[in-house]
Amino acid sequence: MSLFVAKRLAGVAVVAFAVGACSPQSSVAAAAAQSEQPAPVAAPAQPPSSPQPVGMLNGRVLPDFATLVEQVGPAVVNVSVLEKAHHINKQSSEDSDDPVQEFFRRFGMPNGPQGRGFESQPRQGEGSGFIVSADGYILTNAHVVEGADEVTVRTTDRREYAAKVVGMDKRTDVAVIKIEGKDLPVVKLGDPSKLRPGEWVLAIGSPFTFENSVTAGIVSATGRSMPGEDLVPFIQTDVAVNPGNSGGPLFNLNGEVVGINSQIYSRSGGYMGLSFAIPIDVANNVRQQLVSTGKVTRGRIGVQIQEVNAQMADAFSLDRPRGALVGQVIEGGPAAKAGVKVGDVILSVNGKSVERSTALPGVISAIKPGDSAKVEVWREGSTKTLSVKVEEFQEETQKVANRDVEEPAKADKLGLSVRPLGADERKSADTEGYLLVEDVTGPAAQAGVRPGDVILGVNGKPVRSIAELKNATTNGSKTVAILLEREGNQLFLPIRIS
Fold first, then answer.
1. How many helices (H) and strands (E) does the chain have?
2. Of these residues, 246, 262, 266, 417, which one is catalytic?
3. CA–CA distance from 475 to each of 220, 478, 479 (Å)?
4. Contacts for 31 with CB less than 8 Å, ≥ 6 apart
5. Active-site residue among 169, 173, 281, 344?
6. Beta bridge mates, 87
7. What residues contact 341, with CB distance under 8 A and at least 6 apart?
8. Which of the ends of the chain has fewer CB neighbours closer than 10 A, N or C?
């Protein structure tokens, strides 16, 4: 199953067919009636004297989406973008990284069309957005306006505005654009932390260029982690979202925006019942920074984390699966300086509970660099609160260990064949581990241990020899948490003891 990011449509012509939904019997009856009776005179349309009743289901009132759309719809806009034709100059085959030039080189045309260069085709795209301030600031997706030379905003009353891109943040896929206006209709921002699975939500956007389209559904889940999107705890819904809905708002029944529709999960490229929205608190934090400073800064504490499942909770004597398990503490980072250790389980930050590991990056990144955070950790059967001074987030590189082979020894209870690493090997691999996994069977194989992994510890305690590894498995627990190093990263894996 592939992830489809609903990006701008480029050069797509949509052909619409109107299909009637009448049965053969009704068509015949209608034809007979027309042949026998004069055409009736249409009565003038009369507005209803009172609001129409809302439907009922199992004794409960169904949501009045029509009234909701009337209230919030004027603040939702269509975003059209134009990327103009650009002249692509001739470059030598040695110094050109342009994919179009690479295409022509592969087919024996090193200079592309016209010998010295050519004009790329202009590209158009459609997306959605919503007005968040009466003077014209609008939130949308970064992928909607990325690379655009012209951005046009259309409101529901068909007025058009030229917009400028104030800034964008690709890590969260949030962009801020601005139109010149005053007293514009604005949305009200809600609290996505209060969303519950099963709750009704509504989306307005421009799927496939059909402006102001309304779809509704329910919240499927919250705090979803997507591949490569560790800073955004996505809201999953079953609201119909398609290309062109990107950047549009997700409303709760109070008429508050709780998210920005951003992605779908699909095999076909179209809606298949899985839609994902960026929580509005994440997007609004990005907006405030882009408007005030023109850039986005994020906090970091210098740890690598993983999910705590039932086996991990058992291994670390937690009452239930919760928190974020620290698999690695970056040397010299804020967490290391504060005393955070590998094997700690982070339970809360500044009093905000961390139920799942996916929530932690967003919580930390929202803290202003330089501020201190109170981090509650679970360590050796009890809680401990540490003060961590948050630093500015930076991308970190990964190191790949180089490992040689020697005669392995066996740690039977886990199903591991391991051997000690020599001093030169440890230095070459830049690892703190002493045991290399040569072969895996039984419980270890089922847990996901791989040949080539380096064993660092068991249940949060380091092991430096095969004897220590064997002793660590006789603590009476049914599950042990093995700390491994794999391709420069550290992770815990729970192994049930045979």
1. 11, 33
2. 246
3. 41, 9, 10
4. none
5. 173
6. 119
7. 326, 329, 379, 460
8. N
Whether 173 is catalytic: yes
Measure the CA dihedral 447/448/454/459, to 10°: -30
Helix, strand and coil percent figures for the chain, each rounded to 5: 20, 35, 45
| Active-site pick, 80, 143, 275, 453 | 143
Residue 246 known to be catalytic: yes
Question: What is the 3-state secondary structure of 438-449?
Answer: EEECHHHHHHCC
Classified as helix, coil or strand, 424 is helix
Stated as kind and residue range, the H or E segment containing 467 is helix 466-472
- In whole angstroms, give the CA distance from residue 144 to residue 175: 8
For residue 38, the 8-state DSSP code is P
Nearest to 277 by CA among 253, 231, 246: 246
For the question of residue 86 being annotated catalytic, the response is no
188, two tokens: 């009200």
10-residue stretch averages of pLDDT, the chain, 498 residues long: 40 35 35 42 42 55 88 95 64 44 39 48 83 96 92 93 94 95 94 94 93 94 80 92 93 96 82 91 94 90 91 91 92 93 94 88 89 94 94 56 42 76 79 86 85 87 83 74 87 81
Per DSSP (E only), the strands in 174-274 are: 174-178, 188-189, 200-205, 213-226, 229-237, 249-251, 256-265
* Residues found in the chain: 498
